[in-house]
Write a structure and sequence with these properties.
The chain is mostly helical. It folds into two domains: 1-54, no CATH class; 67-134, no CATH class. It is 64% helix and 0% strand. It has ten helices and no strands. The chain has helices at 6-13, 18-26, 31-40, 45-50, 56-62, 68-75, 82-89, 94-102, 108-114, 120-133. α6 (68-75) packs parallel to α8. The longest helix is centred in the last third of the chain and has 14 residues, at 120-133. The protein starts with 5 loop residues before the first helix and ends with a helix.
Length: 134
C-alpha cells in the first residue's frame, strides 16, 4: 500500500490506533510527498524518517540537522550511503556515533574507526558488532 497525501500521512502519524500509526513506518511514501510533508509539517520529521521508504535525499538533508535526536534517527537507517555512515560516525554527539556503531549495515572500516571512540560505550559496541561479523 501507499500513502498518497499529506492529510493521510498526518492522520496516520498522529493516530492513537497502533495499526494506523504503524502504517507510517511500513507504507510507501513517494519522495515528492515526503518533501511536501516536511515543508507543511516540520514537526513530523521523525515520522518521515521512521518510514521504510524515506529517500536517501531526505536522509542526507537531515544528517546535518542541528538537533542530535534527528541525526540519531537518520543514523538508525540501514539504507544510508557510505558517506553518511562516515559523516555520522564522526558526529559531535556520542549518541549518534553509538547508533552508527549499532547499525547492522555500518561498513566494517567505519566500525573499526569507532572502536577507538573517546566514549567507551561507543567503542565497545563497535567491537561487539565487529565480533558478530567475524
Amino acid at each position: 500500500m501507499m500513502i498518497t497525501s499529506i492529510d493521510e500521512f498526518v492522520r496516520l502519524a498522529t493516530s492513537t490506533d497502533p495499526d494506523e500509526h504503524g502504517r507510517v513506518k511500513t507504507e510507501d511514501v513517494p519522495e515528492a510527498l515526503q518533501w511536501a510533508i516536511l515543508a507543511a509539517h516540520p514537526e513530523l520529521v521523525w515520522s518521515v524518517l521512521w518510514n521504510n521508504s524515506v529517500s536517501v535525499a531526505v536522509l542526507r538533508k537531515y544528517a546535518g540537522d542541528p538537533d542530535a535526536s534527528i541525526r540519531f534517527s537518520v543514523a538508525m537507517k540501514r539504507k544510508l550511503p557510505v558517506d553518511l555512515f562516515q559523516l555520522l560516525a564522526m558526529d559531535v554527539d556520542a549518541s549518534v556515533r553509538h547508533r552508527i556503531a549499532c547499525n547492522a549495515k555500518t561498513p566494517t572500516n567505519i566500525l573499526e574507526q569507532l572502536t577507538e571512540d573517546a566514549e567507551s560505550f561507543v567503542a565497545e559496541d563497535a567491537r561487539i558488532r565487529l565480533l558478530r561479523r567475524a
